[in-house]
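Section 5.1 Outputs to date
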Amino acid sequence: MKLFAVAHLVALASIFIVSVAAFLRFSDSPLLQLYTVIASVLAYVGWGITYHFLDKHLTLSIIVEYLLVGALVILLFFWTLFS
């Protein structure tokens, strides 16, 4: 595995770990949890676009895919936290 891929996987794992820790830290406040989810999704989308751009495989369909997955995650957490 190339160092490039390892560095990006470490970045993605860091986003995930920090996101879970923040989500659990704000367990008493659904609004702060939602903000955490939104920030995490933005970091994930940014990571995905950056990864594919540097790998020279970035296309409009990849961008749309990351945005749709992110929107789905935000909607699911919104409905779960506020229903």
